[in-house]
TrEMBL record:
InterPro entries: Dimeric_a/b-barrel, DyP_N, Dyp_perox_C, Dyp_peroxidase. PROSITE patterns: DYP_PEROXIDASE (PS51404). Transmembrane segments: none annotated. This is Dyp-type peroxidase family. One of its GO terms (cellular component) is cytosol. Residues 241-389 form the Dyp-type peroxidase C-terminal domain. Keywords: Iron, Metal-binding, Oxidoreductase, Peroxidase. GO terms for molecular function: heme binding; metal ion binding; peroxidase activity. Residues 28-173 form the DyP dimeric alpha+beta barrel domain. PANTHER family: BLR4509 PROTEIN, DEFERROCHELATASE/PEROXIDASE. Belongs to the DyP-type peroxidase family. The keyword Oxidoreductase applies. NCBIfam families: Dyp_perox_fam.
């Protein structure tokens, strides 16, 4: 029986009754798609091949000697939780449409990818998502990237070792065009945070029964069908069993100093004092720094980071419609748009991102997010989120503004903020907050099945 990607019931990957096609799917799927792989230390290598046979041989070697399957990863997570040994590092591969051409697939072949946006590549989609012109991207991303190799682990040493080994095997005909290094950051509570200091990565579509079972789900159902992230791999030996996922990569630089000034100025404008000042930034993100959803509480604090909520009954007086998490997941609709986010922060800084040190002490560049997400349709998920939600000041409710965190394009309309949490009185109309996240380049990739890579 072909794998039913639309099954609404989360996947019991370890069930004794799992059918043969689903087992084969998990044995041939890359890790980090259905379940996030630990990647506190991360190296992202961007490669160009230039020789069909050598490019194929290299990817085959990486796949057969360095990569594990999604199922192996799930077993490793279980073993580790049971107090047995640590898992092995993550190695993932994504291939761009130019990469498929360079590996010997014809133009007609590449049309088998259903996603038109993947077939275009990110450089040709600048206008649609209001990205900066390609000439302004970091040099490596201006070039034609064929593949991305992701190497991640909880420790630095295995990443360094694997990186050396993999680069050592890169054929002379190939080029390493660039590399990005990711490095996880945590707050004192141990939660992963991004550079503005907010807990990140909490809300995810979950696909596996053991992950879904651990979540409270009175208001928000975190379980999603595989169809949110998986598609049959068109070039694999058996696309009924062999699946892949579209991977969007974007280097997003964060001007932390400017964002902290904006938080401070907004708190001043609204006359917020003491702990209430925290609400300024929370109105931009939709959560407080500690992850507390603004639609649930007027102040931060109170236990583990909640995700069992919707915005039903919140007319924008608690969490503004433009708040980043409300824009990118309105919750009462658009479930098919949600992607599996697998990004990592980059860049080193001397200050502590979560404390209340003044803006002057914050970095104004060179730090940010290596945004990565798995999609079954880049057009209907990543691009839709960026274009129709984040960049659209009239989404859901007219004139509520761009996504203050990731919105791109002219922020020409004025907006108003609730003066007190849950109260109707609004501030006077004011200019939208300035853009503090700048896209520095990226590409669209397909993360093929291991069956494809091993057969190259
Ligand atoms: C530097 C850039 C970005 C920053 C600082 C950022 C920050 C955050 C934070 C703090 C959260 C809350 C944590 C959570 O709910 O898991 C979040 C959630 C989220 N972000 Fe971003 N983000 C960035 C880029 C993006 C981009 C480019 C997209 C998609 C186009 C995106 C989509 C989402 C989604 C879908 C959620 C989860 C919303 C939910 O399910 O409630 N983010 N982000």
């Amino acid at each position: 029986m072909p794998v039913d990607l639309n099954n609404e019931r989360p996947l019991a990957w370890d069930s004794a009754t799992l059918d043969a096609d689903t087992k084969a799917m998990l044995d041939n799927l890359q890790p980090n798609i259905l379940r996030a792989h630990v990647r506190e230390h991360l190296s992202v290598l961007f490669v160009r091949f230039n020789d069909v046979a050598e490019g194929r041989a290299f990817l085959r070697w990486v796949a057969t000697t360095k990569m594990k399957s999604a199922r192996k990863h799930m077993q490793e997570v279980r073993d580790f939780a049971a107090g047995r040994h640590r898992g092995t590092p993550y190695v993932g591969i994504g291939i761009s449409k130019a990469g498929y051409r360079d590996l010997g697939h014809s133009v007609e072949d590449v049309r088998e990818f259903g996603d038109p946006v993947f077939r275009d590549g990110m450089k040709r989609r600048v206008a649609e998502v209001d990205d900066p012109p390609v000439e302004e991207w970091d040099r490596a991303f201006q070039r034609e990237i064929h593949a991305v190799i992701l190497i991640g682990d909880a420790e630095a040493e295995p990443v360094e070792r694997l990186r050396e080994e993999i680069l050592g095997e890169l054929p002379d005909s190939a080029r390493l065009l660039g590399e990005e290094r990711g490095q996880g950051m945590r707050n004192p509570a141990g939660d992963g945070i991004e550079h503005f200091g907010y807990v990140d990565g909490r809300s995810q579509p979950l696909f596996l029964k053991d992950e879904v079972d651990r979540e409270p789900k009175e208001h928000w159902d975190p379980a999603f069908p595989l169809s949110n992230v998986l598609v049959p791999d068109p070039f694999a030996p058996n696309p009924v069993r062999h699946h892949g996922s579209y991977l969007v990569f974007r280097k997003l630089e964060q001007n932390v100093r400017a964002f902290k000034e904006i938080e401070r100025d907004l708190a001043d404008t609204l006359g917020l004092a003491g702990v209430d000042r925290e609400r300024a930034g929370a109105m931009l993100v939709g959560r407080f720094k500690d992850g507390t959803p603004l639609t649930l509480k007027p102040k931060p604090g109170g236990g583990p980071v909640a995700n069992d909520f919707t915005f039903d009954g919140d007319d924008g007086s608690k969490c503004p419609f433009a708040g980043h998490v409300r824009k990118t997941n309105p919750r009462s609709f658009g479930r098919e748009v949600l992607m599996a986010r697998r990004g990592q922060t980059y860049g080193e800084r001397a200050d502590e991102p979560w404390d209340d040190s003044p803006p002057e002490n914050r970095p104004s560049g060179e730090v940010g997010l290596l945004f990565m997400a798995f999609n079954s349709s880049l057009l209907d998920q990543f691009e839709f989120t960026q274009q129709s939600w984040a960049n659209n000041p009239g989404f859901e409710v007219e004139a509520t503004g761009h996504d203050p965190v990731i919105g791109q394009g002219e922020r020409d309309i004025k907006v108003a903020f609730p003066k007190a949490w849950g109260k109707p009185e609004l501030s006077g109309p004011q200019a939208q907050v300035a853009q503090t996240v700048t896209m520095k380049g990226g590409e669209y990739f397909f993360a093929p099945s291991l069956a494809y890579l091993r057969n190259l």
